[in-house]
Amino acid sequence: MRQMKVLLAACVMALALTACDDGAKYVVEDDVVVYSQWTVSFGTVRDTIPDADPATFVQVKSWLGHDSLHVFYERDMVPGVDVASLEAVHKPLFRDKNDYYFKTKPMHVVDVESFEIIRWSYGSFWAKDSRYAYFDDYRFEADLPTFKVKSKGYAKDKYHVYFYGGHIIPDADPSTFKPIGDSGYYRDKSHIWFCDDLLEDVDMATFEVDDYDRAHDKKGSYTMEKRDSVEVE
After folding, report:
1. What angle do CA 154, 21, 105 make, to 5 degrees?
2. 30 to each of 54, 63, 131, 193, how far by Cα in Å?
3. Main-chain phi, psi angles of 26, to 5 degrees
4. Where residue 223 falls among pLDDT bands split at 50, 70, 90?
5. Sheet holding 43-49, edge to edge
6. Where does the pLDDT of residue 225 fall: very low under 50, low under 70, confident under 90, or very high at 90 and above?
7. pLDDT at 153
8. 188-193 contact pairs (CB < 8 A, 24+)
9. Model-level pTM?
């Protein structure tokens, strides 16, 4: 399944299950910490956090809290975080003096002091430090002096094009790679892709996009993953 389809599905799922987190909060009731969140599907959902100490619990954000010993992302404890230096960045990213954390996972950032967010996209982010580039908690090598994040979910340096997720698009020419309008199609001087999937045997000279996921050339029509061959007159 294409990464863009996964992205769209994730966005739909997020809307179906949870509204924005304005209604989320931590509350202390009957000597326990409860994480309360309103969802589209189930209304208000309340989860007890048995490992949290109600006497010392502090809400940092509606999605981030801590007691004297532990840090919690929503309802889950995140091991190894330094409570004293905890800092919320932007949901779902937070940090301490040693590392950055994506939801409940340490990112193992190599150079914490130089780490910077380049662009947020659909609740995910591109970032870099002095050594590596990052997409969420995925770390990858890139030519950092020429690394740039573009709109429509991709980045590039002078050697490679990186699609949503930080993965290289094989054979893409970064100097000529670009999106085709507002569609899901991309092209360089020799190839055409839908998201990060290469379209085989495309006639570059006659290729035209009809809408987001439909296109055609003199050989046939293209709809998402399926190509409907037609006879050329």
Report:
1. 55
2. 9, 21, 48, 57
3. -100, 135
4. confident
5. 25-29, 32-39, 43-49
6. low
7. 86
8. 188/161, 193/169
9. 0.81
